[in-house]
Design brief:
This protein is α+β, with helices and mostly antiparallel strands. The chain is built from 28 helices and 23 strands. Strands 4, 6, 7, 9, 12, 14, 15 and 16 form an eight-stranded antiparallel beta sheet that branches. The chain has a five-stranded antiparallel beta sheet with strand order 5-8-13-10-11, with no helix packed on it. Strand 22 and strand 23 form a beta hairpin. Helix 16 crosses helix 17. It starts with 8 loop residues before the first helix and ends with a helix.
């Protein structure tokens, strides 16, 4: 069924068959553990008294008779004292979100009344539940981080593992959602390509020598001249340079031919510079027909380097007696970089493998390696003959690739074993045993360790976490709290800022956005990357306990590099790294004033109050508006197309469409309060020739004054905490939330508002039944 045109075809067949079996199990789990089935619409449930009282007092005036708002009629159901299950669940969802009656109503139920009504409906009609699928694929970031942590970052330096795989689909706002992490056949081929490239880098051959040729005509030039007869010529003082990349550190040879057009009483002289440092000087006493061969050897570290040839003694004398010797020029041929020379040094991964393998025969040594790496990558100890079977496949495939049968050299066997492990379903798929019974079961220690590590590190459990799982310690709350504290202090916890925060705040992939260069000439990928990093550093401080959670809204300091400080108009900072600086009075606090958020919620040519208002509702208040109805016209992009009308007036006209009014009233008011910040994240006082007007009014009459007014709106109750909680739960579990999760989310949000600690929030999540059982 699987045809592979490579020596590793046997591994592909085994992997494909095993993946198919695992996915069939996963499909069963999805069917068994998905959303609860919807109630029979013909079944009527009694309306609990608490609900009937609330609906009669606050809702029936708008939802009565043939002109009931939204076509949702309540009066007849209240008169009958019962309604169908499905509408009752719909009522429950609106009450749980507390968005009905609308926020502009002068009298609204208390929080306690809302909760009592929701609890009463849940007692009458079981709330919908969702389960984590039993099988899910690692997303590409988890794959890359897992490989890095097992094989070693130093051994893979310069190799972008994540870039070898396609981007994952987003579900529920994140790329950790199990329902989107499927395994199409084309992706299997990508996994083989990635595994082979990773194995080749981690276990290089005896020689890594590579020859890079930079043609004379393509050399970077500083100084006058041209190209002729295979040489690049310098007619004045200047340089010819080549930029090259060293994949493996070691000694490299730099060679090129040089010649002169002789003039005066001296020969041409040149010097060779490597990364700006003078390393050699030569006299060139040869013409183009028999050029001089110049070569040198030098140690190079992995990464980018530059070699340059500089002409030192240009000469021009139109009165020199011999006309043929009046103009001295230097010619440089192709520059050839070869290396590393000699036998390759062992990579850090190879040194570790040697320690694991120990002494003895090749098969026994390889089996020890398979057992250790298999436990790390499969996230559990290998049992039975698993290690033996891995070695059998690796040795057979290594023999096929070399044409020498099952017995071949040690490096080839180790390299092939790495490929075998990296395409194995036990690595690529996270599998949790799915019981047929309906009762929840506690996850075993290794399943729980995997949930913890992929939540907090986006990577495999380390040795300490696996040991705790093996000893049964993760069944105890105190042990889990200790692991959370340790893991959040580990550098690997940066994944929370780099993956969770960027997706929650909508800035993932920000550096790929393009802005109109004529309007925003400085907003280029490097600056957008700095903006994203600014936000990651703020969140990282929160995640590690250096800041309270509310600093995401309230922080009056930020981290900027030199480019971002100049862009914001802050005092200069050192040329390298990020440095903490106080924000000027006019810039919004926390993430609300970050260039990443302001740019991500803008259009290429202008700000977008609609996107900014929607972002606040969706990310910070967890009250995302519904998608716009089809056929609604977009606002014009350019000032010319706006015919002189300010953005505020255009949006007022847009709201005259009754299909748009209900969502845009609140969304537009919030978005317009950001108008003091341009699309590129800089503050501004003038828009289209007029002073900025960033004072707006909500439907309930409350006034928002600029970004600080938005901050006050978000901070006034625990909607922000609940939004953070729900998004973090979705990220941690890999599934969306359902009605049955509301009580847990409310309790987590209340506790978070009280203690303000991200670490305690993580503890509460991982100690919950939703996280520890299935």
């Amino acid at each position: 069924r699987v045809e592979m045109t490579r020596a590793l075809s046997v591994i592909a067949l085994l992997a494909a068959l095993a993946m198919g079996a695992a996915l069939r199990a996963g499909e069963h789990s999805l069917r068994a553990g998905g959303d609860s089935p919807r109630a029979d619409p013909s079944v009527h449930a009694a309306i609990p008294p608490e609900v009937a009282s609330l609906l009669a007092s606050h809702c029936v005036d708008c939802h009565e008779g043939p002109r009931a708002k939204g076509g949702f009629e309540l009066a007849s159901a209240l008169a009958a004292g019962a309604m169908e299950d499905s509408p009752l669940r719909a009522v429950r969802r609106r009450l749980a979100r507390r968005d009905m009656p609308p926020a502009d109503e002068p009298e609204r139920p208390s929080r306690e009344a809302y909760r009592a009504a929701v609890a009463a409906i849940d007692a009458q009609v079981a709330p919908a539940t969702r389960e984590v699928p039993a099988v899910r694929r690692l997303n590409r970031d988890q794959y890359a981080r897992s490989v890095r942590d097992v094989l070693g970052a130093e051994s893979l330096e310069g190799l972008d593992v994540a870039a070898m795989l396609p981007r994952d689909e987003i579900g529920e706002g994140f790329d950790t959602t199990a329902a989107t992490l499927v395994l199409p056949p084309a992706l299997v081929e990508k996994y083989f390509d990635a595994a082979e490239a990773i194995a080749a880098r981690a276990v290089p051959g005896e020689s890594l020598e590579r020859r890079q040729v930079f043609a004379a005509a393509t050399l970077e030039r500083r100084g006058a001249g041209g190209a002729d007869r295979g040489f690049a010529w310098l007619a004045t003082h200047g340089t010819l340079a080549a930029r090259f990349t060293v994949g493996f550190a070691g000694t490299h040879r730099i060679a090129f031919a040089a010649c002169e057009q002789a003039a005066g009483d001296a020969h041409a002289r040149l010097e060779v510079l490597v990364d700006g440092e003078r390393v050699a000087e030569h006299e060139v006493a040869a013409g183009p027909a028999t050029p001089a061969e110049i070569a040198l050897e030098r140690e190079f570290a992995r990464g980018g380097h530059t070699v340059a040839v500089r002409f030192l003694n240009d000469y021009w004398d139109p009165k020199f007696p011999d006309p043929a010797r009046r103009d001295r020029n230097l010619g440089v041929g192709d520059i050839v970089v070869t290396g590393p020379l000699g036998r390759a040094a062992d990579s850090p991964f190879e040194e570790r493998i040697a320690r694991i393998a120990g002494e003895g025969g090749a098969r026994a040594r390889l089996e020890r390696v398979a057992r250790v790496l298999g436990e790390e990558l499969f996230r559990r100890p290998l049992v039975g003959s698993e290690a033996n079977r891995l070695v059998t496949v690796a040795r057979e495939a290594a023999g096929r690739s070399s044409g020498r049968g099952a017995s071949t050299d040690w490096d080839t066997q180790v390299r092939t074993l790495v490929v075998v492990l990296l395409v194995d379903p036990r690595f690529l798929l996270r599998v949790e045993r799915s019981d047929d019974g309906s009762e929840p079961r506690p996850l075993d220690g290794f399943e729980l360790a995997s949930r913890l590590s992929y939540f907090l590190w986006s990577s495999v459990p380390d040795e300490e976490l696996r040991a705790a799982a093996a000893r049964g310690e993760l069944a105890h709350d105190d042990a889990i709290r200790a692991q959370v504290a340790r893991m959040l202090a580990d550098p690997r916890a940066s994944s929370l800022a780099e993956r969770f925060a960027t997706q929650w705040l909508g800035i993932d992939g920000l550096e790929q956005r393009q802005f109109e260069a004529a309007i925003y000439p400085s907003t280029k990928p490097a600056l957008l990357t700095s903006m994203r990093r600014e936000t990651e550093l703020l969140f990282d401080g929160v995640a590690r306990g250096a800041r309270p959670v509310r600093d995401l809204l309230d922080a009056r300091t930020t981290h900027v590099d030199a480019a971002l400080a100049a862009h914001y108009g802050l005092d200069a900072v050192p040329p390298t790294g990020f440095h903490e600086r106080a924000l000027p009075a006019g810039r919004g606090a926390g993430v609300l004033g970050h260039g990443s958020v302001l740019a991500a919620t803008s259009n290429p040519t202008r700000t977008s109050p609609v996107k900014r208002g929607k972002w606040v509702l969706e990310a910070l208040l967890d009250a995302a508006p519904p998608p716009p109805p089809p056929g609604v016209p977009q606002l014009p992009e350019t000032a010319e197309a706006r015919a002189g009308l300010p953005m505020r007036e255009l949006m007022r006209i847009h709201r005259e469409n009754p299909d748009c009014l209900s969502c845009h009233v609140r969304m537009d008011a919030i978005g317009l309060a950001f108008e003091g910040a341009d699309a590129d994240g800089r503050m501004r006082a003038i828009v289209d020739g007029a002073p900025v007007d960033d004072t707006t009014q909500l439907a309930d009459g409350s006034v928002l004054r600029g970004i600080d007014g938005v901050r006050a709106l978000v901070a006034k109750d625990d909607a922000f905490e609940r939004s953070l909680v729900r998004h973090l739960v979705v990220y941690a579990l890999g599934r969306g939330t359902a009605d049955a999760d509301d009580a847990m989310l409310d309790a987590l949000a209340e506790r978070l508002r009280a203690h303000g600690s991200f670490r305690v929030l993580v503890e509460d999540i991982v100690l919950s039944d939703a996280f520890r059982t299935r």
